Amino acid sequence: MHRFSYILLLILLCSAGCHGIKPPRNTRYIEREIQTTGYCKCGKCCNWKRNWLFRPIFTSGPNKGQRKIVGMTASGAMVKPGTIAADTSVYPFGTIMYIDGYGYGRVEDRGGAIKGQHIDLYFKSHKQALIWGRKNKTVKIWIVSK
Ligand SMILES: [Zn+2]
Predict the structure, then answer these.
(1) The whole model's pTM is what?
(2) Which of 28, 39, 61, 130 is deepest in the core (most CB within 10 A)?
(3) What CATH fold (topology level) applies to the domain 2-46+74-142?
Protein backbone atom coordinates (compact mmCIF):
# COMPACT_ATOMS: atom_id res chain seq x y z
CA MET A 1 0.00 0.00 0.00
CA HIS A 2 2.74 2.44 0.90
CA ARG A 3 4.73 1.62 -2.18
CA PHE A 4 1.61 2.11 -4.31
CA SER A 5 0.93 5.58 -2.91
CA TYR A 6 4.58 6.50 -3.42
CA ILE A 7 4.31 5.56 -7.10
CA LEU A 8 1.05 7.48 -7.36
CA LEU A 9 2.74 10.53 -5.85
CA LEU A 10 5.57 10.26 -8.39
CA ILE A 11 3.07 10.10 -11.23
CA LEU A 12 1.25 13.15 -9.87
CA LEU A 13 4.48 15.10 -9.51
CA CYS A 14 5.50 14.16 -13.04
CA SER A 15 2.22 15.20 -14.59
CA ALA A 16 2.93 18.64 -13.14
CA GLY A 17 5.60 19.10 -15.74
CA CYS A 18 8.72 16.94 -15.65
CA HIS A 19 7.99 15.71 -19.19
CA GLY A 20 10.23 12.72 -18.51
CA ILE A 21 13.24 15.03 -18.55
CA LYS A 22 15.64 15.32 -15.64
CA PRO A 23 18.56 17.69 -15.18
CA PRO A 24 21.98 16.02 -15.39
CA ARG A 25 23.71 15.19 -12.14
CA ASN A 26 27.01 16.87 -11.27
CA THR A 27 26.29 19.78 -13.61
CA ARG A 28 25.53 23.22 -12.26
CA TYR A 29 22.83 25.27 -13.86
CA ILE A 30 22.99 28.87 -14.92
CA GLU A 31 20.05 31.27 -14.76
CA ARG A 32 19.10 33.63 -17.54
CA GLU A 33 16.25 36.03 -18.19
CA ILE A 34 14.61 34.57 -21.28
CA GLN A 35 11.55 35.53 -23.28
CA THR A 36 9.38 32.43 -23.69
CA THR A 37 6.60 31.90 -26.18
CA GLY A 38 4.37 28.88 -26.85
CA TYR A 39 4.08 26.88 -30.06
CA CYS A 40 2.46 23.73 -31.39
CA LYS A 41 3.05 21.70 -34.54
CA CYS A 42 0.38 23.48 -36.61
CA GLY A 43 1.06 25.30 -39.85
CA LYS A 44 0.73 28.71 -38.20
CA CYS A 45 3.32 27.94 -35.53
CA CYS A 46 5.73 25.98 -37.73
CA ASN A 47 5.39 27.73 -41.11
CA TRP A 48 3.92 24.98 -43.24
CA LYS A 49 0.84 24.53 -45.40
CA ARG A 50 -0.67 21.80 -47.54
CA ASN A 51 0.08 21.84 -51.24
CA TRP A 52 -2.38 20.86 -54.00
CA LEU A 53 -1.69 17.18 -53.24
CA PHE A 54 -2.66 17.92 -49.61
CA ARG A 55 0.94 17.26 -48.56
CA PRO A 56 2.57 19.55 -45.98
CA ILE A 57 5.29 21.84 -47.37
CA PHE A 58 7.44 24.54 -45.77
CA THR A 59 6.22 28.10 -46.38
CA SER A 60 9.44 29.86 -45.38
CA GLY A 61 13.12 29.38 -44.58
CA PRO A 62 15.81 27.43 -46.46
CA ASN A 63 13.43 24.51 -47.16
CA LYS A 64 10.61 26.65 -48.56
CA GLY A 65 8.41 24.62 -50.92
CA GLN A 66 9.89 21.29 -49.83
CA ARG A 67 8.06 18.45 -48.10
CA LYS A 68 7.65 18.81 -44.38
CA ILE A 69 7.10 16.04 -41.86
CA VAL A 70 4.65 17.58 -39.43
CA GLY A 71 5.93 17.27 -35.87
CA MET A 72 9.55 16.59 -36.77
CA THR A 73 11.96 18.97 -35.04
CA ALA A 74 15.16 20.46 -36.47
CA SER A 75 17.14 17.86 -34.48
CA GLY A 76 15.21 15.00 -36.13
CA ALA A 77 13.33 14.00 -32.96
CA MET A 78 9.55 14.14 -32.98
CA VAL A 79 8.07 17.01 -31.06
CA LYS A 80 6.50 16.31 -27.64
CA PRO A 81 5.65 18.21 -24.46
CA GLY A 82 9.03 19.35 -23.12
CA THR A 83 10.43 20.13 -26.56
CA ILE A 84 12.03 23.57 -26.67
CA ALA A 85 13.01 25.55 -29.74
CA ALA A 86 16.03 27.78 -29.17
CA ASP A 87 18.84 29.60 -30.96
CA THR A 88 21.23 26.66 -31.10
CA SER A 89 24.27 28.95 -31.48
CA VAL A 90 23.49 30.00 -27.89
CA TYR A 91 21.76 26.88 -26.50
CA PRO A 92 22.76 23.75 -28.46
CA PHE A 93 20.55 20.71 -28.98
CA GLY A 94 20.40 18.72 -25.75
CA THR A 95 20.43 21.75 -23.45
CA ILE A 96 18.07 21.12 -20.53
CA MET A 97 16.00 23.96 -19.12
CA TYR A 98 13.56 24.44 -16.29
CA ILE A 99 10.85 27.01 -16.83
CA ASP A 100 8.55 27.87 -13.93
CA GLY A 101 4.99 27.02 -14.96
CA TYR A 102 6.10 24.75 -17.82
CA GLY A 103 8.54 22.36 -16.20
CA TYR A 104 11.60 20.67 -17.61
CA GLY A 105 12.34 20.80 -21.30
CA ARG A 106 15.10 19.97 -23.75
CA VAL A 107 16.31 21.99 -26.73
CA GLU A 108 15.49 19.88 -29.80
CA ASP A 109 14.15 22.45 -32.23
CA ARG A 110 14.90 25.76 -33.91
CA GLY A 111 12.71 28.52 -35.27
CA GLY A 112 13.15 31.35 -37.73
CA ALA A 113 12.13 33.97 -35.17
CA ILE A 114 13.91 32.29 -32.25
CA LYS A 115 17.15 34.22 -31.74
CA GLY A 116 19.30 34.90 -28.68
CA GLN A 117 17.51 34.98 -25.33
CA HIS A 118 14.18 33.78 -26.71
CA ILE A 119 12.80 30.24 -26.59
CA ASP A 120 9.66 28.57 -27.86
CA LEU A 121 7.93 25.99 -25.66
CA TYR A 122 5.98 23.14 -27.28
CA PHE A 123 2.33 22.57 -26.37
CA LYS A 124 0.00 19.82 -27.62
CA SER A 125 -2.57 22.25 -28.98
CA HIS A 126 -2.55 25.67 -30.59
CA LYS A 127 -4.98 26.86 -27.92
CA GLN A 128 -2.61 25.87 -25.11
CA ALA A 129 0.26 27.63 -26.93
CA LEU A 130 -1.85 30.78 -27.21
CA ILE A 131 -2.80 30.59 -23.53
CA TRP A 132 0.91 30.53 -22.63
CA GLY A 133 1.42 33.53 -24.89
CA ARG A 134 4.61 35.43 -24.15
CA LYS A 135 6.25 35.41 -20.76
CA ASN A 136 9.60 36.65 -19.49
CA LYS A 137 11.02 34.01 -17.18
CA THR A 138 14.13 33.34 -15.15
CA VAL A 139 15.11 30.01 -16.70
CA LYS A 140 17.44 27.43 -15.15
CA ILE A 141 19.77 26.09 -17.83
CA TRP A 142 22.00 23.01 -17.97
CA ILE A 143 24.16 23.13 -21.08
CA VAL A 144 24.71 19.51 -22.11
CA SER A 145 25.31 19.18 -25.81
CA LYS A 146 24.38 15.84 -27.33
ZN1 LIG B 1 -0.01 26.26 -33.49
Answers:
(1) 0.86
(2) 39
(3) Barwin-like endoglucanases (2.40.40)
